[in-house]
Design goal:
- The chain has helices at 13-35, 43-54, 59-70, 102-115, 148-157, 179-187, 210-225, 240-246; strands spanning 3-5, 79-86, 92-99, 119-120, 130-139, 162-165, 169-174, 195-202, 206-207, 229-234, 236-239.
- The chain is α+β, with helices and mostly antiparallel strands.
- The protein has a 4-stranded antiparallel β-sheet with strand order 4-2-3-10. The chain has a 4-stranded antiparallel β-sheet with strand order 6-7-5-8. Strands 1-11-9 form a 3-stranded mixed β-sheet.
- A hairpin with a 3-residue loop joins strand 6 (162-165) and strand 7 (169-174).
- The longest helix is centred in the N-terminal third of the chain and has 23 residues, at 13-35.
- The model has no long low-confidence stretch (mean pLDDT 88).
């Protein structure tokens, strides 16, 4: 049976894209404040800008976020926090937040966990189940044909760690700090990427269905709608058939 990670779920495209613009603008702002406005000397900023460009975020939005970070009039100080916990069925969930109010965000995230059949745990309770990786995604529909063996050879020679293949895409996995170097090398060979980002990749996944699947999808929607939540990483999969049933 074919399974898909929740991250592949489609729906509410316009709202989700707007939310992503807002969240990436905050990420760019934070990285520029933290490491300076030169992307070549600031890996975090370079990665954030690459993620923004990958989803066609307007250049004006990117420049505005950087300008805001260097304006000197902002008294907002965001901090990056990961909240870890469990969802229905015992699946592992990591929530990445950027917040200017730790108490507010912790309360909001804890509420989302608990109201949808999960519970927030201590730092480190699930992160050991994930590996932090740079991820470059190639949309297979953008190419007439790509030979899997050839792509594998080229990405490994470029310094990547691994390649995962699905019907829709190739995902190139790198060490987080090798992401940009591998991207530049492969772009020089003619590749274009649908996305470029650092993610926490689950070491193993758990298939969920029925009520647990429904609760987990509602939990993911609630996290996505929270302004402080930048990203959510999980280790559950839902089959295409189950996604169709849920609707």
């Amino acid at each position: 049976m074919k399974f898909k990670l929740f991250k592949d779920r489609k729906g509410k495209a316009d709202q989700a894209k707007n939310n992503k613009f807002v969240k990436l603008a905050r990420e760019i702002y934070v990285q520029a404040r933290k490491g300076g406005i030169n992307p070549d000397a600031n890996f975090g900023l370079k990665t954030a800008i690459a993620s923004a460009r990958a989803i066609n975020m307007p250049v004006d939005n990117i420049e505005r976020a950087i300008k805001k970070a260097t304006g000197g009039n902002e008294d907002v100080d965001y901090e990056e926090i990961y909240y870890e916990g469990y969802g229905p069925g015992g699946v592992a969930i990591m929530v990445k937040c950027l917040t200017d109010n730790r108490n507010r965000t912790a309360a909001d995230v804890r509420s989302i966990y608990s109201k949808r059949g999960g519970n927030m745990g201590e730092s480190g309770c699930v992160s050991y189940m994930f590996d932090e990786k740079g991820v470059l995604t190639i949309d297979r529909e953008a190419y007439d044909s790509l030979d899997e063996d050839t792509v594998m050879m080229q990405v490994l020679e470029a310094g990547a760690d691994d390649l995962t293949v699905s019907e829709d895409s190739f995902e190139i996995l790198t060490h987080p700090h090798e992401l940009e170097a591998v991207k530049v090398e492969l772009e020089g060979q003619g590749y274009h990427f649908a996305s470029s980002e650092v993610r926490w990749i689950p070491q193993n996944t758990i298939a969920v269905e029925g009520e647990n699947a429904e609760k987990l999808l509602k939990m993911m929607d609630a996290f996505e709608d929270n302004d402080d939540v930048q990203d959510v990483f999980n280790n559950f999969e839902i089959s295409d058939e189950e996604m169709e049933r849920i609707g």
